[in-house]
Specification:
The complex is a heterodimer of chains A (about 500) and B (about 100). Chain A is an alpha/beta fold and about 500 residues long. Chain A contains 15 helices and 11 strands. Chain A starts with 8 loop residues before the first helix and ends in a 10-residue tail after the last helix. Chain B has a domain of about 40 residues. Chain B has a two-stranded antiparallel sheet. Classes of the chains: A alpha/beta (about 500), B mainly alpha (about 100).
Chain lengths: ~500, ~100
């Protein structure tokens, strides 16, 4: 395999600029890597011809001195993003062979800056899942294995394809989305960096909707600086998304390497989950020590409503999903299964088009929104959501950012939580609070467990303060010296 | 607030998802497992708390009331399961 796939995004962009190699060579190397990694099931659609065309166009732009910020960088795109002329399915049978004739705002921003698309990445169906097992294309296999253990493991979810592709060097970076932890948990499970920015930073236009008040796009990358470079391109105001924030996009990469001396870091005591592996607790302690050594002040804080975040999420998110997914009726696009009458056509289309987890969530959502239960469930959850958000507001009066583990375990075996939805949901215990409050959160690889599987630490910031997270993430990355790579078996 | 087979049948109807009778019993188990766990929320005192519908602390922006795109039926219909001329074809709704 060519060494060009081993480069970071930053180094690759420097190499293109110095003409050490062309975008075409860089893209060709990645196409070969993707072709030889089918065992991982990371890509659900490869677009090599398109990639080569985009790479040639990029080389021509660079020759004219018109190269953009990401010019020639081969990226993978989560299949939740609509891409013009390229099949976009949200990894659901109900979208079938849907080919959008429009481009999502986020991917349009990437192409504006010259990036190259390698293909569409696998994910949990409609981004509903924490293990990638709900994908209509079958699960992604984590490139990481435990030492002396060939058990296939989950790359996490829902952005499992994005995380696995970045970890296995099948792209220089990837787009992802996060509704309850879907960027950060897969990043933690694969030794990659993932950031969910502040709600409203990235336009949701052209991203298949799951739970609109929680969904947010962000990058998964090889390191903190690469994530910063990608987020800068992805973010920006877009009038087509009414919740898109009309604020300046800072040069996020300029925050990496900045001193964090004097920053106050909160350690929320409620994040010590029962039954959490001791290695994760130790890693968290280690993270505290690293930040202390860099001059941060460590403050214990309380987020008293933490344990109610997941139950509140499992009302709010399914409620919004049941409403959003009402559009899949078999009439205008996607699958249609004919029944004896219109109602039966709807019912059969949706029964055969949606997978079990999606159906479960639509039923929960329809139930909590139905007459007689709305106040007891949905309204209650929205009030609890306010309590959770208030907890963060109070904490941020005392601290500049929070440090927590990203996930309560390392990557688990495929099939391990398949029979117990609640056990699966608990994966998001440390990440979901951030979505409910709309805050930025980042996962940085910080160590490995006893069997050599990667573990991540999460940084949570004030709204629109991704910059501080990039500075702190850079410090943890530097201190952790996380150099482990998955041993190639695929 | 445990749910039973009749409720699941009703909710599936509301959601327009055909769930076979044989699947209802296991769905009751699964959904009750989730709903029982969700009932943890009853512990939280939410008296006088304003429900949170959005994290964005700004009013919804208004835009000019003008046509921005459209007039391209071929694009609109490109993914339709069934079309005739510039129309979607749907099952008969009125007898």
């Amino acid at each position: 395999m060519s060494d060009l796939t081993k480069l970071s995004l930053k180094t690759a962009l420097e190499g293109l600029e110095s003409k050490s190699f062309s975008a075409l060579e860089l893209t060709q190397a990645h196409i070969e890597a993707v072709e030889s990694a089918k065992a991982l099931n990371a890509y659900v659609l490869e677009t090599p011809e398109k990639a080569l065309d985009m790479a040639r166009a990029s080389d021509a732009r660079r020759a004219r001195g018109e190269a953009g910020a990401l010019d020639g960088a081969p990226l993978g795109i989560k299949d939740l993003f609509c891409t013009e002329g390229v099949r976009s399915t949200a990894c659901s049978k109900i979208l079938g062979d849907f080919v959008p004739n429009y481009e999502s705002a986020v991917t349009a921003n990437l192409w504006r800056d010259g990036a190259v698309m390698l293909g569409k990445l696998n994910m949990d169906e409609f981004a509903m899942g924490s293990s990638n097992e709900s994908s209509a294309f079958g699960p992604v296999i984590n490139p990481w294995r435990g030492q002396g253990d060939e058990t296939p493991r989950t790359p996490g979810g829902s952005s499992g394809g994005s995380a696995a592709a970045v970890a296995a060097e099948l792209c220089l970076g990837a787009t992802a989305t996060d509704t309850g932890g879907s960027i950060r948990q897969p990043a933690a499970f694969t030794g990659t960096v993932g950031i969910k920015p502040t709600y409203g930073r990235c336009s949701r236009w052209g991203v298949v909707a799951f739970a609109s008040s929680l969904d947010q796009a962000g990058p998964i990358a090889r390191n903190v600086e690469d994530a910063a470079i990608l987020l800068k391109s992805m973010a920006g105001h877009d009038a087509r998304d009414s919740t898109s924030l009309d604020v300046e996009v800072p040069d996020f990469a300029s925050f990496v390497g900045k001193s964090v001396k004097g920053l106050r870091i909160g350690i929320p005591r409620e994040y010590r989950a029962d039954g959490m592996p001791p290695e994760i607790d130790r890693l968290w302690e280690q993270g505290v020590a690293w930040l202390k050594a860099a001059g941060c002040e460590i403050v214990e804080v309380s987020l008293p409503h933490t344990r109610y975040a997941l139950p509140a999420y499992y009302i709010v998110a399914p409620a919004e999903a049941s409403s959003n997914l009402a559009r899949y009726d078999g009439m205008r696009y996607g699958l249609r299964v004919d029944g004896a009458n219109l109602t039966e056509t709807y019912e059969q289309t949706r029964a055969q088009g949606f997978g079990e987890e999606v159906k479960r969530r639509i039923l929960i959502g329809s139930y909590v929104l139905s007459a007689g239960y709305y106040d007891a469930y949905y309204l209650k959850a929205q009030k609890v959501r306010r309590r959770i958000s208030d907890d963060f507001d109070r904490a941020f009066e005392k601290v500049d950012a929070l440090l927590t583990p990203t996930a309560p375990s390392a990557a688990f075996a495929l099939g391990e939580n398949a029979d117990d939805p609640v056990a699966m949901y608990l994966n998001d215990i440390f990440t979901v609070t951030v979505n409910l409050a709309g805050l930025p959160g980042m996962s940085v690889p910080a160590g490995v467990d006893a069997s050599g599987l990667p573990l991540g630490l999460q940084l949570i910031g004030r709204p629109l303060d991704e910059g501080t997270l990039f500075s702190l993430g850079g410090v943890i990355e530097e201190a952790a010296q996380f150099k482990a790579r998955p041993q190639r078996w695929w | 607030m445990a749910i039973d087979v009749a409720t699941v049948r009703k909710v599936a109807k509301l959601a327009r998802i055909a769930e076979p009778e044989a699947r209802l019993e296991s769905l009751v188990q699964e959904l009750n497992g989730i709903l029982t766990w969700i009932e943890l929320l009853e512990e939280v005192d939410t008296d006088g708390v304003e429900p949170m519908t959005s994290v964005v602390h700004q009013g919804l922006p208004m835009r000019e009331d003008v046509v921005t795109e459209g007039g391209d039926p071929a694009k609109v219909l490109a993914n339709a399961p069934k079309t005739v001329k510039d129309f979607f074809v749907v099952p008969k709704v009125v007898e």
